[in-house]
Amino acid sequence: NAGVTQTPKFQVLKTGQSMTLQCAQDMNHNSMYWYRQDPGMGLRLIYYSASEGTTDKGEVPNGYNVSRLNKREFSLRLESAAPSQTSVYFCASSAIGTGDGNTIYFGEGSWLTVV
Amino acid sequence: AQSVTQLGSHVSVSEGALVLLRCNYSSSVPPYLFWYVQYPNQGLQLLLKYTTGATLVKGINGFEAEFKKSETSFHLTKPSAHMSDAAEYFCAVSEVAGTYKYIFGTGTRLKVLA
Description:
The complex is a heterodimer. Chain A is built from no helices and eleven strands. By secondary structure, chain A is mainly β. In chain A, the strands form two sheets. In chain A, strands 2, 4, 5, 6, 9, 10 and 11 form a seven-stranded mixed beta sheet that branches. Chain A has a four-stranded antiparallel beta sheet with strand order 1-3-8-7, with no helix packed on it. In chain B, a hairpin with a 4-residue loop joins strand 7 (64-68) and strand 8 (73-78). Chain A binds chain B through residues 4, 31, 33, 40-43, 45, 48, 50, 56, 90, 94, 96-97, 101-109, 111, and chain B through 9, 32, 34, 36, 41-46, 49, 51, 90, 92, 94, 96, 98-102, 104-107.
């Protein structure tokens, strides 16, 4: 049972470099999310995709772009990394409107350091 | 607007003692409520959730939480702490009617003392 899988687990970037975080879920969920976690700030939503073909900004979208490639995959791109983007990134998915009670499932996280 | 408040960013208990982690929420509609646990260098794992029905909810690893509408609370408890319970715990709320918004608390780090 893979659930939500995200890669890479760890990455070090130089300021100005770009990279893409990949995420895939095998639970046939319609909604997918990208969060960042910073000490003392809990989880903050970057972008979400309510369903295949749609994406929307969350609380902290600046400096990021996303692509909902298909129902399974939702990628997060940093076009020009900045030290303020050093964080732990979590991909998540949920099946809104089903009997699962809006439960959101998380990947294992991606630790990103921008130097 | 929805919000979640977790009282105490750090809580320490002795092994075998009661664990009580507090969560208060605000929501304009009946909410779905969740507790997640995060072990070091791992993702968030669902402990338990309240959707409808019985207000006392049992989860994994001996944890339970009670939804108290009048107090807008959803506190997490465990009768006897174990060393393996040391982790960070997050309370979260989602509106019932199929929204994509989840509001997370800022987390409570639980330390278990031998």
